[in-house]
Design goal:
alpha/beta, binds iron/sulfur cluster, Bacteriophage protein gp37, DUF5131
């Protein structure tokens, strides 16, 4: 079964990669490490040995597991959804091989290819199969081919590696070959594989029907100015190659000047939650919101974390004073909610599937 999720920006999480190690300040309270340790203690084999619990926090051990049984999950879910890859690690971690990443993109290509899996007959569209060479209608193997397509949100803090792969010819070839295998039939598989990497002899690597993949958004975390600056060039390369991109300003740990990020399709913000969660200044969210609105970027504010401005929820308890005089109060994630200046922000970019 697919894993449904309470994450506000996705309908499912897809976690074929578990395990990681810290790369930036946002990792200090890594929720995934704590969750992985908990899931192992509940007997889930997939999480064996990747993390341990130390007091109230989780610590990665350095082991990263690529869990092959999970690869097929999106293809087994018929209803189109928005999938987050991955909430339990980092897709571009250096212990994830190029071949493993190519399998993931191959699955995403097949799960995004609703178009090829149907035929028109007597004015009626029949979905979920293909016509074989003898004219027989052959049902598609995976439930997702009956309705598809899924959309995927691929999030990393290791942008440069992903940029190098997505812009390189050999990775594209590996994805094309993986998609061929996952599509599981000669006619459609060949069409999908060729739409990723055209077989023409004069092909020089330009965009094609399924590359960049229209159902895949590539995103990075940008929790403060330093990390945003470190990751912007890589994201810009990916966007310039035609990929749709998003940034996750979560947890917002400092102000960010978003100048230069106009290429984004979506900007997501949110606060930190959990034990000793660090507070975010409401102006940091406002800066992200105003930038997104000024540049036609879909803006989604997930939640305020544990803290909220005293102007919105006054009362006793822990207060944090920012240098400019703004004060936030720790009220817990539920009470802090997800309103920003009295309203929710649920912007999603439109997806033009193949
Ligand atoms: S990159 Fe993500 S999963 Fe990895 S340590 Fe940082 S927060 Fe945790």
């Amino acid at each position: 079964m697919a894993e449904n999720t309470r994450i506000e920006w996705a309908t499912h999480t897809w976690t074929p990669i578990v395990g990681c190690d810290a790369v930036s300040p946002a990792c200090a309270k890594c929720y995934a490490a704590l969750m992985a340790a908990r899931l192992e203690s509940m007997g889930q084999e997939k999480y064996r040995g990747v993390a341990v619990r130390v007091g109230n926090v989780g610590k990665w051990t350095g082991k990263v597991t690529f869990w092959e049984p999970d690869l097929v999950k999106p293809l087994t879910v018929r209803k189109p959804g928005r999938w987050f890859l991955t909430s339990m690690g980092d897709v571009a971690h250096d212990l994830v091989t190029d071949a493993q990443l190519a399998e993931l993109f191959g699955v995403m290509a097949v799960a995004g290819a609703a178009g090829p899996f149907h035929r028109e007959q007597d004015g009626v569209t029949e979905r979920g199969g293909w016509t074989s060479s003898d004219g027989a209608w052959v049902p598609a193997k995976w439930p997702n081919m009956l309705s598809g397509p899924h959309t995927f949100l691929v999030l990393t803090k290791r942008v440069d590696r992903l940029a190098d792969l997505l812009l390189g010819h050999s990775f594209r070839r590996m994805v094309s070959e993986a998609a061929y295998r996952w599509a599981h039939n000669r006619t459609t598989a060949g069409a999908i594989a060729d739409s990723i990497l055209p077989p023409w002899s004069d092909f020089r690597g330009e965009a094609s029907g399924c590359w960049p993949m229209r159902n895949v958004f590539i995103g990075c975390t940008a929790e403060d100015q330093e990390q945003a600056d470190l990751r912007r060039a890589g994201m810009q390369r990916i966007a310039a190659a035609g990929w749709q991109t998003f940034a996750s300003y979560e947890p917002a740990l400092g102000p960010v000047n978003w100048g230069g990020w106009q290429f984004l399709r979506q900007l997501i913000s949110g606060g930190e939650s959990g034990w000793k969660a660090r507070p975010s200044h409401p102006d940091w969210y406002r800066g992200a919101r105003d930038f997104a609105e000024a540049h036609g970027i879909a803006y989604l504010h997930k939640q305020n974390g544990e803290w909220v401005s005293v102007s919105e929820v006054a009362g006793p308890g822990a207060h944090h004073h920012f240098p400019d005089g703004a004060t936030v109060r720790r009220v817990g994630k539920k009470a802090a909610g997800r309103l920003l200046d009295g309203r929710t922000h649920d912007g999603f970019p439109e997806v033009a599937h193949a």
